[in-house]
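To: structure desk
From: M.T.
Subject: fold request, one chain
Message: Could you run this one when you get a chance? Sequence is below, nothing fancy, just the single chain.
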Amino acid sequence: MIVYNVTLNVDEIIKEEWLQWMKEIHLPEVMATGKFISYEMYKIQNHNVEDTSNNYSVQYKANSLADYEEYVNKFGTALKQKTLEKYGDKILAFRTILEKV
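Reply: Done. Structure tokens follow.
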């Protein structure tokens, strides 16, 4: 199993709208590609109480690296572009691939 992890920092100004958009539009679009079997979304808790940043982790589970690569090659660029067009620099993201051991 492969986990495609997307860690995001979301600007406070768009946080609520972004969460709704993720749940109602983006996550269903990603799942509709058929390349992932499930996903989970987490709010990353800050250790420092003064840190008010809004960080999230979305973890998409795929059966294989081939499924993930097909997602990237066929769908990933367009879905990233939609997010960029909608939110611009109000969201910063980095992506990692995790393999279950």
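Reply (cont.): The chain has one domain: 2-99. Let me know if you need anything else for the meeting.
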